[in-house]
């Protein structure tokens, strides 16, 4: 083994946002595992999240967690609309903290993708595809109910001891539906101009910020583009719109932007390759000072993640399914970068191979 460097590479340097210091720049992105009953977290969640914490991840963001029962993608999705859902969540948080990691939770409403399909605008022409139901247009009162539910869920996350919450504004779920002109055809003050289409998001941010400790950061997941290149569709959600709302949410209380893409229409064209979404993160990172940025998209190894940070394309690097294949991804990245990374004290004797 090569001599250990005297200074850790950026991937294994801590990063502080407000009062939260994350021990390294590796993030587990939220991944649905459809293992809840009545929205309750289970021992499988504890084992899954715990496996990442044991293996040295800096920040784990738990799966999309519905703020209302009708906001679940499936009946097996997690929820945080009821106080009873806090107990198991706190057990998971406490375990991650014991291992030296940090943990957040993604708060979501699935919009026009669940079984109970709601959206900013209704009609058969706005259904995701032929396998989904046509969405019903939300009334003003229903919009306010969802906003209030995001705030209440943030308060429950705080009671569970979460280090951060992430608002899910990506992948064709409700907030993304409001942002994109493809799915928002309202004529009131929640539709039309970019300012109006962003109003719902900004009101959600306000509700979450008011109900989550001021000293703790808030993340926002966004799709930087609808990824639509179809003849006849000229008006969709694109990177320049994301840059503008990034400035607005920064001023409204969001501290970190977690950048993804697509998910809002079945007509999307996604060309996947290692790091394929990183250019979107880089664009935003360059254009919006004062907002930390998470890059994602087929992050497969330590050198790839390190290059994103060294070239200042983002402040964090997130991986998802890579962690399902390799729960010890962070330790593997440390070996690849010749770093002695921190991981579970109970496993510490495993650092050395004895003959």
UniProtKB/TrEMBL annotation:
InterPro entries in the cross-refs: Aldolase_TIM, OxRdtase_FMN_N, YqjM-like
Q: Which UniProt keywords apply?
A: Flavoprotein, FMN, NADP, Oxidoreductase
Q: What is this protein called?
A: NADH:flavin oxidoreductase/NADH oxidase N-terminal domain-containing protein
Entry cofactors:
FMN
What's a single GO MF annotation on this record? FMN binding
Q: Where is the NADH:flavin oxidoreductase/NADH oxidase N-terminal domain?
A: 11-337
* Species assigned in the record: Linnemannia hyalina
High-level lineage = Eukaryota, Fungi, Fungi incertae sedis, Mucoromycota, Mortierellomycotina
């Amino acid at each position: 083994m090569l001599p250990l460097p005297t200074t850790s590479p950026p991937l294994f340097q801590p990063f502080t946002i407000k009062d939260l210091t994350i021990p390294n720049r590796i993030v587990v992105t939220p991944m649905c595992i459809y293992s809840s009953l009545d929205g309750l977290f289970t021992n499988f969640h504890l084992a899954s999240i715990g496996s990442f914490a044991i293996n040295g991840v800096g920040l784990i963001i738990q799966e999309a967690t519905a703020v209302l029962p009708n906001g679940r993608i499936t009946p097996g999705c997690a929820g945080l609309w009821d106080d009873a859902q806090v107990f198991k969540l706190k057990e998971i948080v406490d375990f991650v903290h014991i291992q030296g990691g940090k943990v957040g939770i993604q708060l979501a409403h699935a919009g026009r993708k669940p079984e109970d399909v709601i959206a900013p605008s209704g009609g058969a022409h706005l259904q995701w595809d032929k396998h989904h139901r046509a969405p019903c247009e939300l009334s003003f009162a229903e919009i306010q109910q969802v906003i209030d539910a995001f705030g209440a869920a943030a308060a429950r996350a705080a009671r569970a001891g979460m280090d951060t919450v992430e608002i899910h504004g990506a992948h064709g779920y409700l907030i993304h539906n409001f942002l994109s002109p493809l799915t928002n055809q309202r004529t009131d003050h929640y539709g039309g101009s970019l300012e109006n289409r962003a109003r719902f998001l900004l009101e959600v941010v306000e509700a979450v910020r008011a109900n989550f400790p001021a000293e703790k950061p808030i993340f926002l997941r966004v799709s930087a583009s609808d990824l639509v290149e179809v003849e006849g569709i000229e008006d969709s959600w694109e990177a320049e719109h994301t840059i503008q709302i990034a400035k607005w949410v920064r001023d409204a209380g969001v501290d970190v932007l977690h950048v993804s893409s697509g998910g809002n229409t079945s007509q999307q064209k996604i060309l996947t390759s290692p790091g394929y979404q990183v250019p979107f993160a880089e664009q935003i990172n360059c254009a919006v000072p004062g907002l930390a940025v998470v890059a994602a998209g087929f992050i497969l190894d330590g050198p790839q993640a390190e290059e994103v940070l060294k070239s200042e394309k983002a402040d964090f690097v997130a991986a998802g399914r890579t962690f399902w294949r390799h729960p010890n991804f962070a330790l593997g990245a440390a070996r690849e970068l010749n770093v002695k990374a921190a991981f579970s004290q109970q496993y510490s004797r495993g650092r050395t191979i004895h003959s």
